[in-house]
Amino acid sequence: MDLQLEKYKLMEWLMSLKDESIIHKLKELKKDADSNYDVSETEKLFIDAGLKDIEEGNTFTHQEVMEEINKTYGI
Question: What is the pTM of this model?
Fold first, then answer.
């Protein structure tokens, strides 16, 4: 199945819809699908802390991390 083609066909079909009840059902479906990606409060705190670290320059390069792993574990 060509996913891009299927999306395009769905968009064409959606643009041609005139039945508001179907549009309402699709909006509810989208809302339900979006809610599957809710982030917990704990996850939000970790994300905010990570973003703050980035802003403050508290980061490591990939090379630095790999060197530390190699030094610690001999990998």
Answer: 0.43
